[in-house]
Amino acid sequence: MRANRDLLAEAVDAVVRNDNCTGCGVCALVSDRVSMGLSADGFMRPTVTPSADDAAQEETRTFRASCPGVILRAPAAEAATHWLFGRVMRAWEGHAADPAVRRAGSSGGVLTALVAFIGESGDSPTVVGAAQDAARPSRTVPVTITTREEALRAAGSRYAPVSVPSSWNGGALVGKPCEVAGLRQYLDATSAGDPILLSFFCAGTPSQHATESLIRKLGGDPDRITSLRYRGEGWPGRFAFTGPSSGSEDYNESWGHHLGRQLQSRCKICPDGTGEHADIAVGDYWATDERGFPTFDEGEGSSVVIARTSRGAALIERAVSAGVLALSPIDLDDVARVQPLQSERRRVQVGRSLGRLLAGFRVPRFRGYRGLVLAVRNPRRNLQAARGTWGRARRAAHRG
Predict the structure, then answer these.
(1) In degrees rounded to 5, what are phi and psi of residue 280?
(2) Which residues are CB-contacts of 93 (< 8 A; sequence separation ≥ 6)?
(3) What are the residues facing 197 on neighbouring strands?
(4) Which helix (H) or strand (E) holds 293?
(5) Taking phi first (over 0 means left), then psi (-120 to 50 degrees means alpha), and beta for anything else, what does residue 344 get?
(6) 163 touches 139 (CB < 8 A)
(7) Other C-beta atoms within 10 Å of 250: how many?
(8) What confidence score (pLDDT) does residue 399 get?
(9) What pLDDT was estimated at residue 57?
(10) CB distance 141 to 133 below 8 Å
């Protein structure tokens, strides 16, 4: 009987069952019946408390309009668009002017500096972001930042599952592209506010198991460590933990050969790894070798900073005028050349999605990302991506 069906639970289950969940946690804003927790494979996943209440119909409509595992709509641009980076008002290269903030951050400290500046300037009394769990530092949790000191404690990338929007309190938010996109779609669907949104370039979310196995590989115990950094304290910085025993590994090894190899499936078909829904997005501006490939030698952090909205551009200009950021204009085509993972993922996104469809999985609806145009320009790469994704998806289904 339709009246006894839990429509929200069915809709959420369909996203999770088809490996389309990003773990963003926006569904926890849609309904207080939804809670987020780690799944058996180490990713943040929703659990829905059963109900057959009529309110589930409205909640389901909001969920389907918000969840980036159901639909992802490219935001409208106020000015220009770039084939890889999406909507752009202005773009710069630079870093936090304060050397301590620059060193603490993963790529120049720009986001850390902006988070502190937003609070100090009165733009938003709080910023919700992510940091290590004080009680269990191997885990990552949402935090509410109200001071510069709290911003510094939360500085640095967290290559681990977390659901930042599930703790959104009406203020500003800094999160992964999927978290920012999901929150923006939720706000569009509900008119619940218009907060400042900050994001960063994302290569995907590794399983919590990846963090714990890397700690063990380096001689530590995930349950006994007292601190954990994935990057920062230099650029790109090292994966490092302290506790009864301490260990560390450089970025190329920790990400390239361990964490980055245990990503959730939805990340591999994502058309937005650069935070198009944010007001401001920040990423690494890598140095390159003679062949044009990024190098990861330790140095002072350098970021690409993209203002995507007029509000974002105005915030950056005020931060520069206040001496918080040191920036100079940049050509985003130069940035695309030092972000090969982002470039390749956009070019083959349609092929990878097709491979999952052929393997019997649903995929989200992606609107406005010009995926078909890029697929036509790169037919061989997309055919190869479709074949490879199909094989991996079939093997994963059989293992499941």
Answers:
(1) -140, 135
(2) 285, 302, 303, 304, 305, 327, 328, 329, 330
(3) 173
(4) none
(5) alpha
(6) no
(7) 17
(8) 67
(9) 87
(10) yes
Q: What is the DSSP string of 101-167?
A: HHHHSSSSSHHHHHHHHHHHHTS-S-EEEEEE-SS-TTSEEEEEE-SHHHHHHT-S---S---GGGG
At residue 364's C-alpha, the angle toward residues 363 and 366, to 5°, is 125
Q: What 3 state SS string does 28-89 have?
A: HHHCCCEEEEECCCCCEEEEECCCCCCHHHHHHHHHHHHCCCCEEECCCCCCEEECCCEEEC
Structure tokens at 157: 């990338």
Q: Which amino acid is at 107?
A: S
Cut 0.85: pTM above it: yes
If the chain, 400 residues long, is cut into consecutive pieces of 10 residues, what is the mean pLDDT of each piece?
Answer: 76 97 98 97 96 80 98 95 96 97 94 97 96 97 97 96 98 98 98 97 97 98 98 94 96 96 96 98 90 83 97 98 98 93 95 97 97 96 97 80
Q: How far apart are CA 186 and CA 149, in angstroms?
A: 30
Angle ∠(82,84,86) on CA atoms, nearest 5: 50
Please give the Cα distance from 18 to 387 (Å, whole number): 18
Structure tokens at 359: 């393997």
**Range 136-144 contact pairs with CB under 8 angstroms and sequence separation of 24 or more:** 136/223, 137/225, 137/226, 137/227, 137/228, 137/241, 138/211, 138/212, 138/215, 138/222, 138/223, 138/225, 138/228, 138/241, 139/208, 142/166, 142/167, 143/167, 144/169, 144/171
CB contact set of 61 (below 8 Å; sequence gap of 6+): none
- The answer to whether residues 269 and 363 touch, using CB atoms and an 8 Å cutoff, is yes
pLDDT of residue 3: 55
Instruction: Say if residue 142 is preceded by a cis peptide, omega within 30 of 0.
Output: no
Q: Which helix (H) or strand (E) holds 380?
A: helix 379-399
The per-residue pLDDT for 1 is: 42
User: What are 194's two structure tokens?
Assistant: 């218009």
Please name the residue that has the structure tokens 């952090």: 301
CA 10 to chain CA mean position, Å: 26
